């Protein structure tokens, strides 16, 4: 009987935490980082501020939890992608996932950094966030190498390679989320960006071919 009660309580706690994060994500989408307060999250999720404080110390912890969740989801997505279509196809598949995560929470990271300043680095949750970011980088780098090997495409040996790819993907994601190129078909922009990034990280003279 005791074990059953424990499981029930744990399930309820997880459900309440999920409701809190979903409410926070909706508020961020509607009003940006300024709209995220403990009171507004409580109202949106239909719970009390006291209950939310049981799971999150403040609104920063809620936002960081969303960022961590975003990184974990993106890592799992990249790890599951097929490698046999080559680098450009891999990047073209990564961009829509990046768009989803950028629209949900990523686009507000610069605002969070500006508003909260250096104090955000004092948090243990930020250490966890850095670790999840590192895992995503590792997963994406491994996927690029494996996809390149599948099409016999030599990549540049440069420490800037991964940052170049990530920056390019984020740039396209930001453009699509903000609709900065309404005259372009999104799929055409994704395909062009994926091809351009691939050429940018390929060794000079490399063309690549399926094996």
Summarize the structure.
This protein has 2 domains: 1-56, Homeodomain-like (Arc Repressor Mutant, subunit A, Orthogonal Bundle), CATH 1.10.10.60; 59-211, Tetracycline Repressor, domain 2 (Orthogonal Bundle), CATH 1.10.357. It has helices at 2-31, 38-45, 49-53, 59-80, 87-104, 109-116, 124-150, 161-177, 186-201.
Provide an overview of this structure.
This is TetR/AcrR family transcriptional regulator. With 211 residues, the chain is an all-alpha fold. The protein folds into 2 domains: 1-56, Arc Repressor Mutant, subunit A; 59-211, Tetracycline Repressor, domain 2, CATH 1.10.357. Helices cover 72% and strands 0% of the residues. The chain has helices spanning 2-31, 38-45, 49-53, 59-80, 87-104, 109-116, 124-150, 161-177, 186-201. Helix 1 crosses helix 2 (38-45), helix 5 packs across helix 8 (161-177) and helix 5 (87-104) packs across helix 9. The protein is elongated, with a radius of gyration of 20 Å. The model is unreliable at 1-10 (pLDDT under 50).
Judging by the overall fold, what is the CATH architecture of the largest domain?
Orthogonal Bundle
CATH class of the largest domain: Mainly Alpha
Q: How can the largest sheet be summarized?
A: none
The shape, in one word, is elongated
Q: Quick one: how many beta strands?
A: 0
Question: What percent of residues are in strands?
Answer: under 5%
Low-confidence stretches: 1-10
CATH T-level topology of the largest domain: Tetracycline Repressor, domain 2
Per CATH, the superfamily of the largest domain is Tetracycline Repressor, domain 2
Radius of gyration: 20 Å
How many domain modules?
A: 2
Through-space gap between termini: 59 Å
| Proportion in helices | over 70%
Count, helices? 9
The secondary structure category is mainly alpha
Nearest-integer average pLDDT = 90
Order of helices and strands: HHHHHHHHH
InterPro entries: Homeodomain-like_sf, HTH-type_TetR-like_transc_reg, HTH_TetR
Domain HTH tetR-type: 14-74
Pfam families: TetR_N (PF00440)
Keywords: DNA-binding
């Amino acid at each position: 009987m005791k074990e059953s009660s424990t499981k029930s309580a744990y399930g309820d706690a997880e459900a309440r935490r999920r409701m809190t994060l979903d409410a926070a994500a909706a508020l961020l989408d509607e009003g940006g980082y300024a709209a995220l307060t403990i009171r507004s999250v409580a109202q949106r999720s239909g719970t009390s501020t006291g209950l939310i404080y049981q799971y999150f110390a403040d609104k920063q912890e809620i936002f960081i939890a969303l960022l961590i969740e975003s990184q974990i989801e993106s890592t799992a997505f990249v790890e599951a992608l097929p490698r046999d279509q080559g680098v450009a196809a891999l990047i073209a598949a990564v961009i829509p996932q990046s768009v989803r995560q950028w629209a949900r929470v990523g686009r507000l990271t610069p605002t969070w950094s500006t508003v909260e300043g250096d104090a955000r680095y004092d948090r243990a949750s930020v250490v966890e966030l850095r670790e999840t970011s590192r895992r995503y980088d590792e997963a994406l780098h491994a996927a690029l190498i494996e996809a390149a090997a599948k099409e016999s495409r030599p990549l540049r040996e440069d420490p800037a390679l991964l940052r170049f790819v990530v920056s390019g993907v984020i740039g396209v994601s930001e453009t699509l989320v903000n609709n900065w190129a309404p005259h372009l078909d999104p799929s055409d922009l994704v395909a062009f960006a994926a091809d351009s990034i691939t050429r940018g990280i390929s060794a000079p003279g490399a063309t690549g071919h399926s094996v």
